[in-house]
What we know:
This protein has 8 helices and 7 strands. It is an alpha/beta fold.
Amino acid sequence: xxxxxxxxxxxxxxxxxxxxxxxxxxxxxxxxxxxxxxxxxxxxxxxxxxxxxxxxxxxxxxxxxxxxxxxxxxxxxxxxxxxxxxxxxxxxxxxxxxxxxxxxxxxxxxxxxxxxxxxxxxxxxxxxxxxxxxxxxxxxxxxxxxxxxxxxxxxxxxxxxxxxxxxxxxxxxxxxxxxxxxxxxxxxxxxxxxxxxxxxxxxxxxxxxxxxxxxxxxxxxxxxxxxxxxxxxxxxxxxxxxxxxxxxxxxxxxxxxxxxx
Length: 261
């Protein structure tokens, strides 16, 4: 119990597992949250993570009562975390002309936005009373400028950035840090479905190392890798007419049930 504790959602694959492994190697105990708990257990065993160093919680972050219950159980079983990382998210293409895709947007916002607030909720009061702790929201460079065919995802990640900025101001007087991490393209099962070029593609372990540094420093906002931060800022500065022309004809994110080719 003397070791710090990190609570991480979306721990069954990709960025979540990379972050979990890096925090474990840095001496943290882990509270790992996922819908597919058996996959988390297999992964932890394969990486030699001590059984005494972690607990697994089954939850669906898109269901408020589910993720709140997981956070409450974590406090009961492992204590109040030092770091909470709201990493769980989904990314599916959207076409507003398709009725079914409106449900994609509902599900995306429920997972990426309401799910983030619900992830933080069980810990806010305890952290403010303790006057320490770090809440980490995983955004995306896709939240900086809207991309064709990415309406639901871009909107959700723009909301992550604004939400964390609001929360940061609320928590600051209480000694609780709020960190926004915006990944660029990370080589995960999620991004491997993309059918467009992905500049500055990063390996998950490299992302996790840089994210860990930003989190432990208490950076308010960080784009990883930094090159994508530069690209995003340049895109943000482009006039709309030039931005629209630049992205015209760009392949769109694959929609649900859409064939790979």
